[in-house]
Amino acid sequence: MKSVEHHSISFYITIWVILMVAIGASVYLGSIQHAHLATLLIFSVATVKAILVANYYMGLSHEPKYITLMLLVGVLFIGLLFVGLIPDIVYIYGK
Amino acid sequence: MSSSSILNTNPTHEVEQTTCLNVPNHRWGMWWFLGGEVAVFGGILAVFILFRLRNPEWAQEAAHTLTWVGSVNTVILLTSSLTMILAHHFVTGGGAQGLTLEQRASKGALFILLTNLLGISFVSLKIYGYTHEWHAGYTPERSLFWGFYYFMTGLHALHLIAGLVANSVVWVNLMKKRNLQRVESVGIYWHFVDLVWIYLFPLLYLEVSSGG
Amino acid sequence: MSKKQSFLTKYIFSQDHKVVGVQYMILGLLMALVGGYLAYVFRYQLAYPNQSIPGYGVLEADKYNSAVTMHGTIMVFWVAMPILLSGFGNYLLPLMVGAKDMAFPKLNMLSFWVFFVSALTLISSFFVPEGAVGGGWTTYPPLMANPGFTGVGWGAPLWILAVALEFASMLMSGINFLTTTITMRAKGMTFFRMPLFVWMANVASLIFMFSVGPLIAGALMLLADQLFAVGFFLPEKGGDPLLFQHLFWFFGHPEVYVLLLPALGIVAEIITVFSRKSIFGYKMIIYSVLVAGVLSFLVWAHHQFVSGIDPRIAAPFGLTTILISVPFAITMFAYIASLWGGQVRFSTAMLFAISMIVEFLLGGVTGILNGATASDIYMHDTYFVVAHFHYTLFPIVFLTSFAGIYFWFPKIFGRFMNETWGKIHFWITAISANFVFLPLFFVGIAGNHRRIYDPSLFEHLKDFQYLHVISTIGLFVLIGAQVPFILNFFISMFKGKKATENPWEANTLEWQAPSPPGHGNFITDPVVHRWPYDYSLENTEKDWCPQTEAI
Ligand SMILES: [Cu+2]
Hints:
The complex is a heterotrimer.
Chain A: H1 9-29, H2 35-57, H3 65-89
Helix pairs in contact in A: 1-2
Chain B: H1 2-8, H2 11-19, H3 25-54, H4 58-62, H5 67-91, H6 101-135, H7 144-175, H8 182-205
Helix pairs in contact in B: 3-8, 5-6, 5-8, 6-7, 7-8
Chain C: H1 7-12, H2 17-47, H3 61-97, H4 105-124, H5 147-150, H6 155-183, H7 196-228, H8 241-275, H9 282-295, H10 311-339, H11 348-371, H12 373-379, H13 383-413, H14 419-445, H15 465-480, H16 482-495
The complex binds copper (II) ion (CU).
Copper (II) ion binds next to helix 8 of chain C.
């Protein structure tokens, strides 16, 4: 098996430290009063965490772009489902 | 065994490995599998978010989930991802040249074991959280939020337990110095389960006070 | 090459993609017998209400519901999917790309056995207390979410379990198809030299992979509703029954293409071989199908125009529905253009392929009436819809499968099926199918709701009862026509005329392997020099040119 390019142990630990800090940030943001801002920030932080895990732990950053693209297409279709459901589930007609 | 050994010596197979973007079969397979999983969890998250938007009062319900359990479990799970990637790091030679097969396999096995211990702690803490919340009266009877809560975290936990089983199989392989490439496959899966939790955690445990 | 294999490892627990493919096909055909029997039972009831049905007895109303539900479920998930995608896909895909086997042979074997268990689970639901589920193949809540409504305690959870296992099995197949196509193509087999069937099987797998996830989630939520009364889909508990419909059809419409695309692939291979012409617009077909694949995720709510969805989203979904017929119209015209001016050889396989195109066109055209919101509101849930989707699915599933079986039988078993009996089978099948389904359009327009147990109870339907009788008699003939096929199939397996490597003078790689191919498929690794559709080239002696032939 031809192995992929390697990061060093310290690189993986650095990522882990960033993730830990991000968890702390999320928990703190959960307690602030400004609801909309907090929601926005919490999900931004979650997305940063997700990107770090996907790119460096799952190794997406080493993979051909096609694979990321394929996964994003899956996410996009779910996004379409989400949008299509908004009128029926959230803003119900006539209410 | 016979057919897979035929495959490994198949010349066309090797030709295609090089022309196909350097991604070996087991990783292609894993990514396709995750493509399907993205749709499963994506669908669940989408549905939950829609219901959450429909019911602003669920913010109060979310305040009753044990936030400390969720937070500690997030730490545990992300740490297990670190041990998992380190297992992969050592198994593939880990930068340091000249590690023997035995050394690579035994270091990998150690870190797989650590990953599983963290995974088991996650499940144990989850069970503690469930019993605590359930006995405090937070059952699906109370509100659909709790239906979603148990459903989503339960499905995630089942995926995690499946990951524990897969890791154990790989651990046995490593003890026998076999199939070292499998660490990568179970690793990708493990990180994906981790990734799902990254979104479940704020959705279920961190609802901001006045709702979204 | 490999050790001598026992019967068990060679034919039962085999990892050889060809054996797995044949296992899928045979199990699918057996399930078709069950589905056909159910159709016979409820069609008999519809034509001759409340009479004792030969071979069944009197059909009670609740058992009628079970019969239609299980007929739909079986035909879509346990006949169409395994035969078209898993059966032909497993058998042909590695051969067509020049691989020795699938990328993950063990996963492949597992996928079949998971499918086998799913079939057993489904069949077992007939025998549990209260019998099989009767909520319709779409299993809409709140009917399905609460055992109190259906009176079915065990059938409903078993249905969900069986479908979930079936989905898992199909996902495993899909992973194998995609990986094999990407990494194991023979030297020279570029993506645009792959036969259309390979393209179609892969696009179908992708569509399935992306669309089934939300329904898996929805099915598990439905299961939670049934077993623990959680209420995801029950309004009184804060849930929403519409949600399930959305999740179901977000999968359900792409699923139609999961079935249609492999069928179009099979038909493409057959019509080029027997019209001795290259396929018209190869790349155009591929791009059309890719566009249709994306669009298929944008049309799902056209199944829900009358179910209380927001009228504001009905219009865009009606529009996308009309749009999605464009790529398929292009594909159909490409096929007809491929036939045009060819030296057509009317073998049984070719006859089935042509009849597929003809009958599918009628199904497709009547679909436009359902896609347009205004007419659909009148047609919805009537026999018109039933007739429409049977006019699409019968050609897709049965006519195409028969075409494929007659065509690849010599490759699979090394012997031909009998052509005379094949033609008898063809003519009776293709004609009687119209007698079964054509009357249903008219019954539907007359206002016959599709779930009515006894049409004679309705004054406005009395004058149309004769149409139900015609349809049912047509079905008797249609089922009877399958007897020569079944006999032909099994007798030819052992007694048929021996086939050479390339009996139809075709170009694709599977015809370069021995008939039947041994374990590992090819004697020498094929090297590909051209696309698969070089027929009737100028300045050549023979009128075909295999992909392995150098330019
Ligand atoms: Cu549709």
